[in-house]
Amino acid sequence: MANGLPDPPCGLLTADAARSLVDSVDAFLFDCDGVIWKGDKLIEGVRETMELLRKMGKKIVFVTNNSRKSRRQYSKKFRSLGLEVTEEDIFTSSFAAAMFLKLNNFPSEKKVYVVGEGGILEELKLAGFECFGGPEDGKKNIILEADFHFEHDKNVGAVVVGLDQHFNYYKMQYARTCITENPGCLFIATNRDPTGHMTSAQEWPGAGTMVAAVSCSVQKEPIVVGKPSSFLMDFLLKSFNLETSRMCMVGDRLDTDILFGQNTGCKTLLVLSGQKLVVLSAPQSLSRVQ
Ligand SMILES: [Mg+2]
């Protein structure tokens, strides 16, 4: 025990630490962007690591905040990179948004407005919800003429905001009018990541930037369903017979991946975006990570 913190709270992943981590874990939860791939490029060593862990009998699950794709589309992306991963082992924030509405008995006669991409629309439709917006509204413009009044669907009962490369003023106003003028309209964010590895060359604005814009215009905080919220973990536990204390969350962000692992009682492993340095941390040891 040092400085009142458990010993060892965190440290570099040495060969000994890696062995003891693998022995103490039945399942590894991997973030995707910046951990498995950057953009469409597989990170070096991922295929070999997955093969080794599977040979050792470890369960491998993917938990991503990127809402641009559905579980089906992610499974396709894994296959295109030479990795065999089934839809059931992929938990996305787009899926989380649909499951959140389902679990909360969102009325079937109400509609969902989407600020985001195809992944959110596909998951909502698969869950049986009527939804619109998304890429189609990316082409819509607003001309702010005198006395112009913006019309919106009064039957929208939820607005879901995720990463949207076609984010614009029209979508912001649509989301704003639904949230402020439709009684009881839910404001759901897939996640609040400030940035993400949308391409292998650099980082780009994340869903958190779109969420912040809508949140600012309505002066309200959203319900967050992706990491670090523990909502996805509840689903994961229902799907697999696993204990969180024997899981390890592997990610490249302290504020989402590592916090999600800590919030849900997992061991955590921070990878610095494909760089060689790796830090191992135990729950509640975030303050010791340098
Ligand atoms: Mg990441």
Automatic annotation (TrEMBL):
BP GO terms, sorted: photorespiration
SUPFAM superfamilies, per the entry: HAD-like
UniProt KW keywords: Acetylation, Chloroplast, Hydrolase, Magnesium, Metal-binding, Phosphoprotein, Photorespiration, Plastid, Transit peptide
Chain sites annotated for binding Mg(2+): D31, D33, D252
UniProt-annotated binding residues for substrate: K227
UniProt keyword tRNA processing present: no
Cofactor stoichiometry and binding remark: Divalent metal ions. Mg(2+) is the most effective.
Top-level EC class as recorded in UniProt: hydrolase
Keyword Magnesium part of the UniProt annotation: yes
UniProt-listed Enzyme Commission number(s): 3.1.3.18
Subcellular location: Plastid, Chloroplast
Pfam families per record: Hydrolase_6, Hydrolase_like
Record family assignment: Belongs to the HAD-like hydrolase superfamily. CbbY/CbbZ/Gph/YieH family.
Name the record gives this protein: Phosphoglycolate phosphatase
Annotated function: Photorespiratory enzyme that dephosphorylates the 2-phosphoglycolate produced by the RuBisCO oxygenation reaction.
Record GO cellular component, one term: chloroplast
GO terms assigned for molecular function: metal ion binding; phosphoglycolate phosphatase activity
Active site per UniProt: D31 (nucleophile), D33 (proton donor)
Catalysis performed (reactions): 2-phosphoglycolate + H2O = glycolate + phosphate
Cofactor(s) annotated in UniProt: Mg(2+)
